[in-house]
Structure prediction request, 256 residues.
Amino acid sequence: MRIIVAKDYAEMSKRAADIIASQIRINAHTVLGLATGSTPVGAYEELVRQYNEEGLNFGNVDTFNLDEYIGLGADHPQSYRYFMDEHLLSHINMDADRAHVPDGLAQNPEQECEEYDRLIRDLGGVDLQLLGMGGNGHIGFNEPNDIYTAETHVVNLTESTIKANSIYFNNENEVPRQAITMGFRTIMQAKKVIFVVSGKAKSKVVKEALEGPITPKLPASILQLHHDVIVVLDQDAASEMKLKDNFIMTDDQLFR
Ligand code: F6R
Prediction:
């Protein structure tokens, strides 16, 4: 596990975007796994800038989002499909057919999950998976649980996630209670993972996830078992970690 501690959110976003952009430059046919939420917004802005100003080419890239609310369609402003269009996809040269988000309006969500997994497999799996983390340690919508669910599946959201996500809705009652999420197998089979966490509020959970026991009760902790994960934290998120100096790659060490 490589850990980059950036001084603030802007620098964290730039570092994350640079890693994603490098991946696309190395392999134009990259399959990217993407996340929504507030954390990756700055990284998406930077990717759009690199597309506009530095010719970053998304023409042969495929993307798979981690999750989607059940009951929200592409035209609902709180759907994750809408979020991706707004923050990234409509600003770059990506073929709409290659940008995949689970269909929240699928008649048969279980079948949608199976088809989503099959499509990812057919394209050779995810090359680089971008992950954020919820305040309760969830990744995708894999909530704290007693078991790891491997495949893409339907999940009931926890009260804490409903509350956290209600800031984007008029009130808590409007937050969907269920979602489709990639499971742990797809996430862990990604060839590379980039895990971004920002802010003091998540500092204790990120410390537990990266330095504590590996358990489905804290879903992000499974990332300790991934063979190629780059963690990009801002200083606030890293503030509780016990990392030794030589384990942290600060900017100076990374870019000298
Ligand atoms: C969303 C997703 C979630 C978010 C998490 C953190 O696609 O995968 O796991 O990464 O809820 O959200 P923010 O960044 O808004 O704190």
Summary: The longest helix spans residues 9-26. Residues 35-39, 66-67, 80, 132-134, 138-140 surround fructose -6-phosphate (CB under 6 Å). The chain has one domain: 2-253. DSSP finds nine helices and eleven strands in the chain.
